[in-house]
Every structure is written in C-alpha cells, then in structure tokens.
C-alpha cells in the first residue's frame, strides 16, 4: 500500500507521526492532508528515508541540487556535496548528474544521506543514446523504473510538456524558448519523432511504476520561462493546466505528487504564478526554482532566487530549490552549494516567520535574537545567527573597547537608551 492509500483508509503511519511531531501539529491533520494530496512525504519503499513533510501546514522546505556534468565528473566531490547539503540543513537533495557512471553516482548518493533523494530519469534515458532525440519511450520508462528500484524517493518528470505545449511555444514570441533541460529533451524529441511525449501519452504507466515503489512524482516545469521577458505567457500557463490534470490523475492512483514552478519571473508576477498554480493544481505542494527576479545578476543568482523565493513563499510556495552563485555560469563548487543553501534557508525562514506567526519556531528564534541584541550578548547572537562563524568573523575583524560593536562604539543606541531608562522600563 502507498502512503496515500493508508491515509485515505484513515491509517496514521509512523512517517505521518514523525512529520506531525517535527512540525508540532496533530497526526490526523497530516494524514488527512496526505490523503488529499496537500502534503507529500516523499519516501520510496526501498529506502529508510527520513520522513519530511512538504505542503500545507508544513514549515518551508529546501532542496539542494548536486551532480556531475559531462565536463565535471568527480563522484567523490558530488557525494561530499550531498553530505554537506544535509549537514547544512537541506531537507532533500536532487542528483542531477549527467556525466560518468550515473548508476554508481546515484547509488552512492542514496547511501550518503538520510534525507529524501530526487532525480530526473530522463537525463539517464538521454545519456543512453548518442543523440538525445534517439532515446526511445522504453529508455524513458526503464530509467524511471531503474531509479525507483534503487530507492529514489521522488522523480522529476516533465509530463506536462506535450504537443499542445509545442504548438503554444511555436505561437509564442519567447526569447529563450525552453531552458528546462528535461523540457528541452522532450521538445526536441517530439519535434524529431513527430509523436507526443511518452510521459504524457502513457502517464498511467508512469503512475503504475511510481505506485509500485511509492515513489513521489515531481511534475516538472519544462516550459518555465528562462528570462523576465518570457514570464507569465501562454506556454507556461498551458503547462499549469496540464499539470493540474496530472495531479488529479496521480491522486486517483494514490501516487503522491508535487508541482515544479518557474523560472525567471518579475517580482509583481510571482503572486499570479503561485496562486495560479495552486488553483489549477488543486492545492498540490509547490516546488520552486527561484523564481529569479532579474536576468542581469550572474554570480548573484542565489540572491535573485532568494528574493523571488521569499515572495513566492508569501503566496504559498512550500518547497524551495536552492540556486547557487554559479547559476548560468558553471557547475557549482562545494562552496557555491553552501552559499546557495544558506541564502535559500534564509528565504525559507522569512517565509516561516509570516506563515507560522508569533507561535512558530522561526518567530521564536527572531525574538530570542532581539533579546540577545538588546542585552549585547554576543555569544548568544552568534549561537542564534544563521551563520554564527561568519557573524563572529566580521565582528572580530574590527575591535572595539566597548561592549557594543565598532559601528557606534560607546554611542551605541541600545546601550544609551537602556541606561537612560534605568529601572523605569520594566524588562521582558
Ligand atoms: C534546474 C536547475 O538545476 C540546477 N542544476 C542542473 N544540473 C545541476 C548539477 N549537476 N549540479 C547542481 N545543480 C544543477 C541548475 O541550477 C538548474 O537551474
Ligand atoms: C525545482 C526544480 N528542480 C529541478 C528541476 C529539473 O531541472 P530541468 O527542468 O532543467 O530538467 C526542475 N525542473 N525544477
Ligand atoms: S546553465 Fe549553462 S549549460 Fe545549462 S542551459 Fe544554461 S547556459 Fe546552457
Ligand atoms: Zn535561468
């Protein structure tokens, strides 16, 4: 039985219990949301994955992308990245490898971490042939089955990219056309073979495989806009409509899903995207890359992604995919991954502050920081900081004689007002 079947039958499994406990909510609420497809707990039956809840009532989750490319094949380095991502607080990792022995890399990553692991099986199907468009429908489904057998917890399938998308794309005046890697394979395949995307045409078969291993489907955003000028157009919204239908079919088949989203989007169109996706996909958990809110910041795209992620979170995004400083430039290094994760974690925290409000964990952490600041308790501030070492290093670089900091020294506002009030203002 899949987790969703259990949930629909009213059974609270240990995974649901664990999620409820971690989030501080009632286990039957988790069960009921899993039954409706509003919370996903990606967990392959072949793997002892840490249960992580994504979706309604859940704190915001973050994913780290890792993996080789054809230009950079160093399995040990990728395993290191996966471990570092877990240690840094990632709730999931995706192995997006496209170079080297993909089965071996995946096996090692699945062993190296306890958090859910996601993959994109079409990358392996494409790699099995000399040119991408020569992959067969069997290659695609065999890759999905292989990943499922190996214990992968969730797979991205660009099943919403179909002949209809192709027509919408033809009629559009997109500058960047398609920037999703899996989306580009699918579009090229359809153009070459004159047939519809097998993952769309035979979606029921995909569901059968997923169901056998209770593997979650991450419905990929193959048509996501790759630049600000392309955002919020018909190819994108057409894909949302299709993905919504696929969510419905997945739920009927008791397969958990979440939906991936765009892309490059200007700040004032993020709400439209997020609300539109939530509506069209009947409240399915949303998994976003970015959105990146400008095109001109290579080297800073972890920041453009975090700005977009925070705004998207405000409107209901559940799961943030980290973006690193090397986006659009190169395969990320270990340092890039750490930097990207930290900034994404920060975005997730700002979302949780408003999502959970004063009773939530994020708010309590902020309030503790406020007290530590008021008390000029530096050790406590470092302890509460998102990166205490960085904070300490910066403070220590400029010494001060005062117990404040070198920004104002003895003219420290906090200190002056505190002393002026004396005993007159009651504490806490
Ligand atoms: C969909 C997103 O996945 C990321 N991405 C794609 N391949 C890799 C890889 N091997 N390692 C890390 N991130 C990757 C890019 O950031 C892209 O924007
Ligand atoms: C959040 C997220 N992570 C990974 C992918 C896969 O990448 P691609 O669509 O480029 O194949 C995606 N579409 N969305
Ligand atoms: S990240 Fe680099 S390789 Fe990948 S689609 Fe963009 S330009 Fe091409
Ligand atoms: Zn981009």
Architecture overview:
The chain contains 19 helices and 10 strands. The mean pLDDT is 96. The chain has helices spanning 3-8, 14-23, 27-36, 75-87, 102-112, 121-127, 137-150, 163-171, 181-193, 198-201, 203-213, 234-252, 267-280, 301-314, 334-356, 361-374, 378-384, 388-397, 413-421; strands at residues 39-40, 54-55, 61-66, 92-95, 117-119, 154-157, 216-219, 257-261, 286-289, 319-321. It is 51% helix and 9% strand. The N and C termini lie far apart (52 Å). The chain is α/β, with parallel strands linked by helices. The strands form 2 sheets. An 8-stranded parallel beta barrel has the order 3-4-5-6-7-8-9-10, surrounded by 7 helices. Strands 1-2 form a two-stranded antiparallel ribbon. Strand 7 (216-219), helix 12 (234-252) and strand 8 (257-261) form a beta-alpha-beta unit. 5'-deoxyadenosine binds at residues 65-67, 69, 96, 289, 323, 327, 331-332. Iron/sulfur cluster (SF4) binds at residues 179, 328.
Features:
eight-stranded parallel barrel; two-stranded antiparallel sheet; globular; binds 5'-deoxyadenosine; binds zinc ion
Number of helices: 19
Uncertain runs are: none
Strand content: 5-15%
Query: Which sequence of strands runs across the widest sheet?
Result: 3-4-5-6-7-8-9-10
Order of helices and strands: HHHEEEHEHEHHEHHHHEHEHEHEHHHHH
Structural class: alpha/beta
Please tell me how large the radius of gyration is.
Answer: 23 Å
User: What overall form do the CA principal axes indicate?
Assistant: globular
Distance between the termini: 52 Å
Q: What ligand molecules are bound, each kind once?
A: 5'-deoxyadenosine, (4-amino-2-methylpyrimidin-5-yl)methyl dihydrogen phosphate, iron/sulfur cluster, zinc ion
Largest sheet: 8 strands, parallel, barrel
Q: Roughly what percent helix?
A: 40-55%
Average of pLDDT: 96
DSSP E strands, number: 10
């Amino acid at each position: 039985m899949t987790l969703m079947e259990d949930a629909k039958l009213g059974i609270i499994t240990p995974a649901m219990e664990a999620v409820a406990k971690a989030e501080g909510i009632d286990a039957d609420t988790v069960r009921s949301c899993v039954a409706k497809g509003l919370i996903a707990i990606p967990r392959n039956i072949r793997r002892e994955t840490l249960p992580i809840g994504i979706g309604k009532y859940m704190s915001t989750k973050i994913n780290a992308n890792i993996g080789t490319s054809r230009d950079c094949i160093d399995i040990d380095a990728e395993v290191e990245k996966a471990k570092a991502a877990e240690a840094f607080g990632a709730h999931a990792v995706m192995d997006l490898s496209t170079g080297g022995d993909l089965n071996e890399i995946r096996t090692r990553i699945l062993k190296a971490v306890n958090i859910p692991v996601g993959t994109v099986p079409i990358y392996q199907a494409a790699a099995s042939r000399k040119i991408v468009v020569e992959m067969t429908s069997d290659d695609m489904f065999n890759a999905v089955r292989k990943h499922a057998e190996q214990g992968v917890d969730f797979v991205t399938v660009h099943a919403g990219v179909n002949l209809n998308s192709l027509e919408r794309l033809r009629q559009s005046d997109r500058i960047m056309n398609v920037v999703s890697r899996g989306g580009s394979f699918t579009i090229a395949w359809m153009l070459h073979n004159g047939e519809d995307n097998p993952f769309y045409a035979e979606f029921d078969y995909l569901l059968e495989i997923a169901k056998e291993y209770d593997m979650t489907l991450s419905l990929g955003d193959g048509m996501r806009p790759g630049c600000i000028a392309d955002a919020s157009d018909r190819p994108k919204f057409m894909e949302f409509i299709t993905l919504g239908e696929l969510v419905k079919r997945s739920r009927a088949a008791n397969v958990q899903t979440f939906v991936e989203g765009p892309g490059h989007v200007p700040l004032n169109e993020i709400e439209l995207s997020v609300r539109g996706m939530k509506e069209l996909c009947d409240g399915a958990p949303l998994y976003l890359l970015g959105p990146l809110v400008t095109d001109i910041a290579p080297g800073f795209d972890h920041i453009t992604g975090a700005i977009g992620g925070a705004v998207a979170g405000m409107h209901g995004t559940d799961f943030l995919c980290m973006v690193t400083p090397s986006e659009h430039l190169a395969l990320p290094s270990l340092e890039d991954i750490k930097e990207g994760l930290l900034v994404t974690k920060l975005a997730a925290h700002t979302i949780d502050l408003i999502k959970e409000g004063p009773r939530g964990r994020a708010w309590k952490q902020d309030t503790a920081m406020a007290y530590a600041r008021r008390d000029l308790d530096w050790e406590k501030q470092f302890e509460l900081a998102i990166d205490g070492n960085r904070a300490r290093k910066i403070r220590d670089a400029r010494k001060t004689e005062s117990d404040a900091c070198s920004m104002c020294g003895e003219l420290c506002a906090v200190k002056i007002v505190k002393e002026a009030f004396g005993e007159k203002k009651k504490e806490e």
